[in-house]
Amino acid sequence: NFLISHLEQLKEDCVITPHVNQVEYHPFQRPQELVDYCRSRDIVFEGYCPLAKGEALTDPSIVQLAKKYGRTPAQICIRWSIQNGIVTIPKSTKAERIQENCKVFDFTIAEDDVEILNGMHDGRHVSWDPSLIV
């Protein structure tokens, strides 16, 4: 959950660069500057809450794309995240949802549809906001 400021501070205080930075990532929270920062420093960006704790599952744009691709809204969000190069960790305790979440490697979202999802970023956090930590 490190932001750029946290990673910069860590760089001053430590000699070891983190290998992974796990951060909230979904269509409403797409911190591209942080993703780019991590990539430029060989830090794997790992995204959690890809379904925005369920908020993304009823969003009209995501539901429409799910219908277009014959998938579920969850599969659209997970596939979008993967296509953006994000290591994605969906969470579920239900076996059928875990199986559904795994079925995202046999289709591709068209670039114009990826851009629709990319454009949904509004800075919303569904977990906690790490910018409050100094």
From TrEMBL:
<dbReference type="Pfam" id="PF00248">
    <property type="entry name" value="Aldo_ket_red"/>
</dbReference>
<feature type="domain" description="NADP-dependent oxidoreductase">
    <location>
        <begin position="1"/>
        <end position="118"/>
    </location>
</feature>
<dbReference type="InterPro" id="IPR018170">
    <property type="entry name" value="Aldo/ket_reductase_CS"/>
</dbReference>
<comment type="similarity">
    <text>Belongs to the aldo/keto reductase family.</text>
</comment>
<dbReference type="InterPro" id="IPR023210">
    <property type="entry name" value="NADP_OxRdtase_dom"/>
</dbReference>
<dbReference type="InterPro" id="IPR036812">
    <property type="entry name" value="NAD(P)_OxRdtase_dom_sf"/>
</dbReference>
<dbReference type="GO" id="GO:0016491">
    <property type="term" value="F:oxidoreductase activity"/>
</dbReference>
<dbReference type="InterPro" id="IPR020471">
    <property type="entry name" value="AKR"/>
</dbReference>
<protein>
    <submittedName>
        <fullName>PGFS reductase</fullName>
    </submittedName>
</protein>
